[in-house]
## 1
Amino acid sequence: MKRVLSGIKPSGEMNIGGYGGALHQFLAMQKEYDCYFFVPDLHAVTVPQDPRLLNRRSKEIAAYYIAAGIDPKQATIFIQSHVAAHAELGWLLETQAHFGELGRMTQFKEKSHGKDTVSSALFTYPVLMAADILLHQATHVPVGDDQKQHLELTRDLAQRFNNRFGTTFAIPEPIIPSIGSRIMGLDDPAKKMSKSNPNRNSYILLEDSPEDIRKKIGRAVTDSEGIVRYDWERKPEISNLIEIYAVVAGESAAAIEQRYRGVGYGPFKQDIADAVIAVLTPIQRRFGEIIASDELLTILRNGAEKAAASASATLRNAKAAMGLLTLD
Ligand code: AQP
């Protein structure tokens, strides 16, 4: 059985970066795989969070999963901290991870850069991510470009553990979408579109109004050439806009390039805004219904129960393999 596990951190409001790199991909996967989509709140707290906002955002991310079309009858939707086995396996895997390899993680280097102090949890974050994946025996993990290195570490840890203690974990394969795996900031195509960017014009939120979407895309940086071409090397600003357009319109970059041959950036940007609005409007409507309903909490309760059941055998096997005393 092919199983997928993935999630979006509740570290800020959801934007179309996470939609393109994750949520949009989840939708395509739910029919083909046994899917576990979770809200990694334990990952969010590796950097300071406002407790009240974290609480609300965790619910919101789960509501966006459903509003975008994840069917809770097919997929298991849950909050990471509701299944204690994630933290427990995280600790066991930390005993197998090397200090040096964690220090080489690009995301850690970026997130700790220029900070006087960072939490030790930020340093061990990729090990918890490995635990999330291995605990549920995920065979496939959809990841954005930026998460490739963490998945490589997950595979290394699984292999190291299996070699040392006997086969316990499935070795997961990455699924990197050909389009949407890197959506960069609207203000700077060298930086990933991130929830934690303080510049609100750098991203389009899933909750943005049509007016805000038009404004933000209108202000998105371009070059002065006036040629719509998909070429990340030479035209990162335009390539990023094509990437966003391709995700929301379900078209290839080549088809978009073709259509805007000889047309300037004005109409191109207007059409992107229309396409983003067309995708987000129904999601926003459903989100409004779900977030206000009791159904969401029922879905999360059921999801946590199912995820805990799926986790228990692997956790027990991992503990027993390491020689920890078990009573069953
Ligand atoms: N801009 C993006 N382009 C493509 N994929 C992206 N993802 C996130 N942003 C982009 C992918 O979405 C999944 C969930 O990511 P996450 O929210 O758990 O963590 P993140 O990548 O750290 O997201 P942010 O927005 O940058 O959060 P902050 O600012 O809090 O660190 C992942 O598969 C990710 O690749």
## 2
Amino acid sequence: MAKMYYEKDCKLELLKGKKVAVLGFGSQGHAHALNLKESGVSVVVGLYEGSKSWKKAESAGLEVQTAEKAVADADLVMMLLPDEKQASVYKSKVEPNLKKDAALVFAHGFNIHFSQIVPPASNDVFMVAPKGPGHLVRRLYQEGMGVPALFAVHQDASGKAREFAMAYALGIGAARAGVIETTFKEETETDLFGEQAVLCGGVTELVKAGFETLVSAGYQEEIAYFECLHELKLIVDLLYEGGLERMRYSVSDTAEYGDYQVGKRIVNEETRAEMKKVLSEIQNGEFAKAWILENMAGRPVFNAKRRQETEHPMVGVGKKLRSMMSWLPNQEGFDA
Ligand code: NDP
Ligand code: MG
Ligand code: MG
């Protein structure tokens, strides 16, 4: 069993008198910067001239500087830019300005684990990775709760990197829910696997396959949408609250019997074998290489896929059905 750490195990005092530069003000950036500030930590947000996020961060009451300036003054530098931009921003703006004893912090291990960023040996390098989207990291903090997180130490130059990581985890509220120690390798590989095989890739293809099967058999698109996508939320809420057992307790016995009979025919031996292959492509760096090269080439495959997906019949039906659900968040652009 992994050892869990909670608020009582973390010393927020370690961050007193320190300046934290949060680079980026997107999904994670806004949550970390605001939560830390409200926990009494001195924070500056680092962006670039012309950044859309600059005004947002300022109107949220935060100090904003260019990344170069923010780094030059910081004792901790948290890298919350998109993973694919981190290596070049690190080279041009972070490394030349990084104080000799400043800690370099990540919310995901990709760039360190796959050696896209190689920090000097004099600096602490650690990770605090919330296990949830940034908007939840912010909302739960405001409600007195938190999103659990993983932490890991890659370089311990100060001899205190672990304690700093745990203090940071408390500052963003994660220690209220529990933090687990890991390594950059474990976090990176499990995170990539989870999003590819289960959370994003697995779920979207499962939903589409279910929808397409029903529609091609002549059922109404709206019913197929409700059944295969909309209702997923109810199921996921039950899973989140009480695991597989709570979901199975709550659904009808007919649904539970169908679950036992059919689940393994959908996620079958072939699927499991493919999952192992996906994992080994993550472990041996093949996925990382493809994604790094894809970005260097200007994302031709990514952009084509994104466009193709907007043409799926579920998109139109979904838009129409959701427009009648006034309680849903703004549907334009899904902005913060
Ligand atoms: P986002 O894409 O949401 O954040 C982008 C932010 O970076 C924006 O504020 C953007 O500004 C800014 N930015 C872009 N380029 C630069 C630059 N050159 N210099 C300074 N700022 C820049 O990122 P995420 O929050 O999704 O991801 C951040 C990190 O957190 C990643 O390592 C990710 O793996 C990790 N993570 C993310 C999770 C999530 O919930 N999304 C969950 C757990 C970890 P502008 O828009 O103005 O260009
Ligand atoms: Mg993840
Ligand atoms: Mg991820």
## 3
Amino acid sequence: MMTLSNSLAHADVAHQLHPFTDARAFEQNGPLIIDHGQGIHVFDSTGKKYIEGMAGLWSVAVGFNEPRLAEAAYKQFQKLPYYHTFSAKSHEPSIKLSEKLAEMAPEGLNHVLYCSSGSEGNDTVVKLVWYYNNALGRREKKKFLARTNAYHGITMASGSLTGIAVDHKDFDLPILPVIHLTCPHFYREGTAGETEEQFTARLLKELEDTIAREGADTIAAFIGEPVMGAGGVLVPPKGYWESVEAICRKNDILIVADEVINGFGRLGTTFGAAKMGFTPDIMTVSKQITSSYMPLAAIVFSDAIYEAVADNSHKIGAFAHGFTAAGHPVATAVALENIAIIEERDLVGNAARLEAPFQSGLRAFADKPLVGEVRGVGLMAAVELVADKATKAKFSKSGQVGQIANRIAHEEGLILRAIGDTLALCPPLIVTEADVAEILRIMGVVLDRTAKEVAELGIA
Ligand code: PMP
């Protein structure tokens, strides 16, 4: 436990309410204050060095001290630190980034709308989709299909799309017409005796039955992370996304790929949808677009949506949506430089090349005590810890063992993320093979020490 010996920690406890933190426990333990970063490492205020095994919040592709991003920001700050994009005003960085995103996106997705966070992005997706359907006179076609354990953000609409119970509890969410379908995670959602193929068929039937029950003319869109992140790195079974796409197309339901984590190389492809075998109508991107050096999100959407939206804006007199910081010149300038670095250093290829050692190295831990499932794609992965490997029984107090592992990882110099009792890893895309080996070595130690401590404490 950290003692609150330093004044920064005291001030933090006194004044800052931290996201996704138990405030009372925080009063006792205080913060881990990160002071500076270098490559894949960050250093805390005592000088201790950590591998940032989560790339911050799944987001720092190019590492923690990329001078080219600092220079790109500084140059733009000097030239034009702020301008907006309302009322036909524009500026070069937002124009160039839009052109670049259209070039990178699947064919037919040529239009971009900006905001500053993934949550705002998915809120805007809801508004864009509703506006689109209203423009087409389909005023009933408004419901969203999402999945349990999905994470799409935390604002009113995006938080409603999110399918994680604790994110709804006591916030009076969801407030949208959203239907959460079964999460495509065979290990947890598959029933006894069911094969993975049968499981997939059951989920697809659930989708078809839901559409039949609700009526396709009431369902606007299906939103999903190609590979789910914050829900615990949940990888859908083979064929799942292709079939979801086919069912949605048959029923004229838009497909929204939430690429906020997957986008810009995380899965070893530029966007996650390609890796999972489907083509969306809309993508939400954020995080790795700027390596999170600046807040930025973009919604990249199809020509068909644009045409209807443009017509309607003409009829009404304006597309009456936008944020003060939409397409912020410094954020978009940093994004352009960040994407240039990703391309020049072939970081997408790096993720694809390191997928095998990273994923197979982690899967080698499957035989260790407490390890229920190891899963992941590209450079994102998770190790789920369980009370009983044979029955997959969870620990009676969810998250307790995850916190033990989290503390031990910190002691061993690795930042990971405990999602309940699942340990997530998502290192910066600049990792080398040697870095991956070091992450795996530390993970082995973390898992062994956690199992020992859990046994000593008699946790079940
Ligand atoms: N979508 C996904 C898939 C995410 O992982 C996140 C953030 N973890 C969001 C949306 C929300 O992004 P933000 O935190 O920037 O609002």
